[in-house]
Amino acid sequence: MQNNIILAGVGGQGILSIAAVIDLAALHCDLHIRQAEVHGMSQRGGAVQSHLRISDREIHADLIALGRADLVISVEPLEALRYLPFLSPEGRMVTATEPFVNMPDYPSLDALLTELRRTGSPLLVDAATLAREAGSPRTSNMVMLGAAAPFIALDPSQLEAAIGKIFEAKGEDTVAMNIRAFRKGLALSQP
């Protein structure tokens, strides 16, 4: 088993928290993990991406080659397009639909969604709305993780347990809110 995942977004959207949850869940399943991160500007709004590789055998490279990602999880639609060349022909694109407009010539949302739909059958997620329903807009990253969970080579219950561990220092309410957000995303991916 091998699962190559690219996480994409902009600073402040919780990309590294998604990676931490997946990493911890994979470790608890005794899987091998490789992760490479690229942080954009340290200020909110810079591009952030993470290559995350999970396998039941040793992994020798941190980076995912073009056309080899099984999954791209993006918390920002323009960033989803940026990493489209990494997606394998059988791969899945899971992206939030709410843009983070951080440049003057940001394309229209309609144009972005049209391009994303050309990828086959992307899962387009209104993460902002679901996060607010879960209790906080800051949980949109966990909504995205939940929506992508069926395409990750880990059981969703393992991811949920890792959410509990990652956020436990912030208190029970924060853990519960993030798990609610995860479950709202997961419900979108269920048949």
In short:
The chain has 7 helices and 6 strands.
CATH topology: Pyruvate-ferredoxin Oxidoreductase, domain 3
Hey, roughly how much beta strand do the residues contain?
15-25%
Share of helix, binned: 25-40%
Can you tell me the CATH architecture? 3-Layer(aba) Sandwich
Biggest β-sheet: strands ordered side by side in the sheet: 2-3-1-4-5-6
Distance between the termini: 24 Å
Given helix and strand content, the structural type is alpha/beta
The radius of gyration computed from the alpha-carbon positions, rounded to a whole number of angstroms, is: 15 Å
- Element pattern in H and E: EHEEEHEHEHHHH
Number of strands: 6
Overall domain count: 1
The CATH homologous superfamily is termed: Pyruvate-ferredoxin oxidoreductase, PFOR, domain III
The dominant shape is globular
Descriptive overview:
Helices cover 40% and strands 24% of the residues. The chain has 191 residues and is α/β, with parallel strands linked by helices. It has one domain: Pyruvate-ferredoxin Oxidoreductase, domain 3 (3-Layer(aba) Sandwich), CATH 3.40.920. Strand 2 (32-39) and strand 3 (47-55) form a beta hairpin. The longest helix is centred in the last third of the chain and has 18 residues, at 172-189.
What key phrases describe this protein's structure?
6-stranded mixed β-sheet; alpha/beta
Write the layout of secondary structure elements.
Elements: E1 2-10, H1 15-28, E2 32-39, E3 47-55, E4 69-74, H2 77-82, E5 87-96, H3 109-117, E6 123-125, H4 127-134, H5 140-148, H6 156-167, H7 172-189
Parallel strand pairs: 1-4, 4-5, 5-6
Antiparallel strand pairs: 1-3, 2-3
